[in-house]
Structures are given as C-alpha cells and as structure tokens.
Design a protein that fits this description.
Structural class: alpha/beta
CATH topology of the largest domain: Rossmann fold
Distance between the termini: 64 Å
CATH superfamily of the largest domain: P-loop containing nucleotide triphosphate hydrolases
Helix content: 25-40%
Shape: globular
Number of helices: 21
Number of domains: 3
CATH architecture of the largest domain: 3-Layer(aba) Sandwich
Length: 552
C-alpha cells in the first residue's frame, strides 16, 4: 500500500461515490484523490481494479458518477488480495472511528423533507425524484442492479434521514415491508405501531439494499434471511440499529430495532417509581448468591432494568460478566460484556460455563430460553454466584411455572431463586393535552379508587381529527394528537420467602401462589402498580388495562 492513501480517506471516498458491498462484489476501490490542472475539474480519483478485462463494462458508470461531482478518474491495477485488504481496512475504520452519516444535503432534497415530516405524511406530496418504472415491470426486483443503483446519493441520504428521524422521535422499531406495487414503512413508538410513509417499489428495494450495506449484510442475497447491525454517530451521540431481513411473498422485508445507547436512563430510582418495590428489589440484588429473574414480553424494558441493576452493583470491588444477544448497552466500568456467537457454538449455556472459570461474582445471562441454560444458571447460583437473567413470561408467578416446565426441580428452584421481577411499559399521558377529571364510577369500583380522585384521560384523536386540528393550528405539539408521550414501567416483584417456597413445594397453582404473595407479602400485581401510577396522574386507566390484559 502506498502512503498516498489510508483507510479513513478510502472509506470517505467509498461512502461518497460507491458502497462497500459494490466494491467487494466488483473488486474495485477508490484509493485517493489527487489535484489536477485540468479546467472544470475538482481533482482525479485513483481507482484500483483487479480485473482489467472488466474495465470496459464498469468504467463508464464510474466515470459518469464521478463526473457529476466534478471529478475525473484514473484506473490502476492491483491484485485481488490487495483490494480485499484495502476494503477490509476501510470497513473497520468506519466503525472504529464512528464517522457520522453525511447529512449535508438533507434540507436540499425533496425526499428528505418528506421523510423529516410527521408520520402522517401526505403521500401525494411525497416525491422521490427517481424513475419509478413500476408500470413497466411488475417484478422490478429481478432487473435491478442494486449495487450500482445504490450509488445514488439520494437513497443514501434518505436512509440516513429515516434512521436519524426515528432516533430523534424515540421510535423503537422501523418496519419496511413490501406490498404488491409499493413499500410501506411503519414505526413502533411508545409500544404502538404507527404508519410512517409509503413509497414506490423501486426506491423501496434500493432503500433496503442501502440499509443492508450499512449493516454489512449481503445485498445480493435477497431470499435467505439475514441479521446485521448499523453503528453510526449523529451529533456526537452513538446510534445502533439491529437489522433483520426476511423474504415475504411480495419481496424482502426489513425490520430495524433501535438499540437504546443512552445510559442516562440506567437508574433504578428513575425506572422503578414506587419506593417499596424499588427497595425490595435492591434487597435481593444485594444478596451474594442465587438467581434474580426479570420477566416480560419482548420490548418490555427487561434489558434496561438489568443494565441499571448491574451499573449499580459495579463498585469496582466485584467481577461482573455478561452474556448478551445482542449487547444493547455499553455498561463500561469494570463490567465484562460478551456477545453470544451462535455461528461458533457459543450459546448462553456454553458462555456461562466459561464464565465460571473467570472468577465471577455476578453473572448476567441475557435470556433463559431452554433447560440447558436453566440448569447451568442454577449450578452457578448453587456454587456461590449471583445470577441475573430474563425470561419470557406473563407474570412473576408464571415465570416459576416456566422454569418448572424446563424440568427445574422444585427444591432447586426454592433454594436458588431469590425473586422474580415482572414488568411492562405503559404510555405516559401527554401533559400538553391530557384531560383531568374525576374517575368514572365503573372504573373507580373495578380498580378500588376513590370516586372523587381526579385522574387523567388521554386526548387521543382520530386521523380525521388530527388533520383538522393540524389545519387549524391547534394540534398538540408534544404528542401530535396521540394523547401519550413517553413510557414508564410497571412492576410486579415476587420474593421467594419461606411461605412462597412452601407453596411451591406443595404444588400450589400459579393463581394460589399469586394470591398468597398479595395477601401475605403485600405484593403489588402489575395492574395494582399501574393503578398507583394512575392515581399519580402519570398514565390512564385504559392504558393500564390495555397493557395488563396481555398478562392475564
């Protein structure tokens, strides 16, 4: 390699004019820019190519692309191995340096203005400025040279705009789904799916190809499912997106999960609102051995709660190790975080056995999903380690049933499990437009709330009402007519004291164990915890009912 180019400059040129995957597929890579005395030319881009016989085919689109930006190009021959090495180093450089998405042209492009608009964007005003060609070809995907078409800066900028807009708007998931003649984008915000926009088929295919390239996925593979991760920085903040693709009948679908890298939320005082529940959770956290389980469905905040617990325990005096899939928070400090590597056979159970040879005090197992992992976790707890793990279960008591279904013996469960924290996320009522009034009589009776208690009701509007309010200029600027803004956790903490242990040993049902915990130990159920938040005017009865009905 010559001193005239380096991985950083190579990656900048790749992102500006091509794509990593396109360079890999064609064994072509830009090396560096040199000044020129030619009139009307910004400079010459040196382009390395492995196969000169391919030059006649590839030279024209490259030259055309560069000329649009005011550059000329010169081709130099390099071996396949050299080019692969240059590309690999450039790929690493982008991710190590965390270079930001280029957003310099966002405001100048009509498509980007549309993307930055609200989720109820007027589709008639949405213009991509691309050739749609949908009328000419019903199976456009087969005829697209995606690697070449992805060189279009508008698509790259559109992809960046979608990611940035979603991150800013506290979206948790982005769904890009193919339909017969279009692509439909929906986002999950505050736990609820919302429409974002639709686009013609061709730009939709290009968009997915661009996102796949950003995630280091194979853009040429459109039939097999793939997983990847996008890592970028924007305005100094780290952005992480977990990407998954699957082939549907109408084309390739992509779902992006936005991983929360904001460690400011990792505080138990902030997460668990009710003092008694938070204090009791801390008591079992401060034990030296056993298992602590956090349960709930996907997206209920389990990882956030556990990350907050580990950060609190990270005093520098103990050894904390984690096995995660994926690593969602960079916990820093003295915590060792390990990513599960299924391709190499490193599952949770195997990593746990490896951890036991690493002199740990506290171990986090991202999820207990099978008997092998459950058995390994119990063994670790019985040998003097404190184990945190998650479980997919509807409530704290059903978590115990799940373990028993995994053939965990009752005596092991009673001797090892210290407590189970079940949780959900409910939407917080918008403070800008909520309606405050005494609770309805039927609701007061059902949830044991004083009839004169003032509570908040969400002012959630229909699509027609939103459009009218927006036209009038009276739409709530905080929630955009949703009636809710942000989320807060509701929790149910089951502590396995002697009474609960005896009930489990006697084979009591899940309902009987729950009733015992409520009556004898004053355990708040998920619904009861939610009602306390209603009394504090943080959420609504309807929201608690919506979320807690999923746990029944």
């Amino acid at each position: 390699m010559t001193s005239q180019y380096n991985p950083t400059s190579v990656r900048k040129l790749v992102d500006k004019f091509f794509s990593l995957q396109w360079c890999r597929d064609n064994l072509v890579v830009p090396l560096y820019e040199e000044e020129t005395t030619l009139p009307m030319s910004q400079g010459v881009i040196k382009i390395a190519i492995a196969n000169y016989s391919y030059l006649a085919t590839i030279a024209s689109p490259i030259e055309e692309r560069l000329s649009q930006a005011g550059f000329t190009c010169e081709f130099v021959k390099k071996s396949q191995e050299e080019i692969q090495k240059i590309i690999d180093l450039a790929a690493e450089e982008k991710f190590i340096s965390g270079a930001s998405i280029d957003i310099s042209q966002f405001d100048e492009d009509a498509v980007l203005e549309a993307i930055k608009a609200t989720s109820d964007v007027d589709e008639d005003k949405f213009e991509f400025e691309f050739d749609d060609d949908s009328d000419q070809d019903t199976n456009v995907e087969d005829d697209l040279d995606l690697a070449t078409e992805m060189m279009e800066s508008k698509i790259q900028n559109a992809a960046g705009a979608i990611l940035i807009n979603s991150k800013k708007d506290n979206v948790s998931d982005i769904h890009i789904a193919p339909k017969e003649d279009k692509y439909k984008i929906r986002v999950r915000k505050d736990g609820v799916m919302q429409p974002f926009m639709t686009m013609p088929k061709r730009p939709g295919i290009q968009l997915i190809a661009c996102l796949k390239n950003m995630a280091n996925m194979d853009i040429a593979e459109k039939r097999a499912s793939q997983d990847g991760k996008i890592l970028r920085k924007f305005e100094g903040n780290r952005m992480e997106f977990r990407c998954s693709t699957v082939r549907e009948k109408d084309g390739e679908k992509m779902v992006l999960r936005i991983l929360n890298s904001d460690d400011s939320v990792l505080n138990l005082d902030t997460l668990i609102h009710i003092d008694e529940v938070r204090n009791n959770f801390r008591k079992i956290m401060n034990t030296t051995n056993g298992i602590i389980i956090v349960s709930g469905p996907t997206g209920s905040g389990k990882s956030t709660t556990l990350a907050a617990a580990l950060k609190e325990k990270d005093t520098g005096e103990i050894n904390i190790v984690t096995a995660e899939d994926p690593v969602e928070y960079n916990l820093g400090g003295d915590i060792s975080q390990v990513q599960v590597n299924k391709a190499k056979g490193e599952n949770f159970a195997k990593l746990l056995r490896t951890f036991l040879r690493q002199d740990p005090d506290v171990i986090l197992i991202g999820e207990t999903r099978d008997p092998e992992t459950a058995e390994a976790s119990l063994d670790a707890a019985e040998t003097g380690h404190l184990v945190f793990t998650t479980l997919h279960a509807n409530s704290s008591c059903t978590s115990l049933t799940r373990l028993l279904d995994m053939e965990v013996p009752k005596y092991k469960l009673n001797s090892s499990v210290r407590g189970v924290l079940a949780q959900r996320l409910v939407r917080k009522v918008c403070t800008g437009c909520a309606i405050k009034r005494p609770i309805k009589e039927s609701e007061a009776k059902e949830f044991n709330i004083n009839l004169n208690t003032p509570v908040m009701y969400a002012n959630n509007l229909t699509a027609e009402e939103k459009a009218l309010r927006k036209k009038e200029g009276s739409l709530c600027v905080k929630c955009n007519g949703a009636g809710y803004k942000g989320r807060i956790g509701i929790y149910e903490l089951l502590i396995l004291d002697r009474k609960i242990q005896n009930a489990i040993a006697d084979g009591k049902s899940t309902r009987e164990v729950e009733n015992l915990a409520v009556q004898e130990n004053s355990m708040l159920t998920l619904t009861q915890y939610g009602v306390e938040l209603v009394k504090e005017q943080l959420t609504t009865i309807s929201e608690v009912v919506r979320v807690c009905s999923q746990s029944d």
